[in-house]
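User: C-alpha cells for this one?
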Amino acid sequence: MSQKKVTICASIAFLDDISIWKEKLKNDGYDVVQYPKKLIGEFLPSYKVEFTEHYQKMAESDIVLILNMKKKGVDGYIGAAVFAEIAFAIGLNRTSRYDKKIDVYCLNHFPNSLPHAEELQYWVDLGWLKFWN
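Assistant:
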C-alpha cells in the first residue's frame, strides 16, 4: 500500500507547529506533500505561486489536515484563508466529476464564535469534516 499524501493547511503564524506536525506525520508513515511556507521575495508574485501550488497539491492529496491552533486569543482558530481551503477540499469531494475522495480533518474543535462556525458545523454534521485522532 502506498503512503497517503497529506497537505497541511494552517495559518502561517503556526510555522513551528507546522514543522512539528510535518515530522510527526512523516514518522507515522504519511507523505506530506504540501504545507504553508514563509513567502520569500516580493509578496504578490510569491503569494500567487504558493497559493496555486498549495491548491494543486490539495487536489492531489488523500488527506487535508487543518492545524487550527490558538491564534488571536482564540482556541481552534480558523481564518478566512484556511476556511477557503476547507471549502475547496469539500467542494472537490462533492463534485461528481472528481474521482478521488479527500479526507478533511481539523486538529482541534473550533469555537462557535468564528464567523463561519455554523457552516463548519454543518460540514461536521454531514461527515464532510472530521477531527484528527
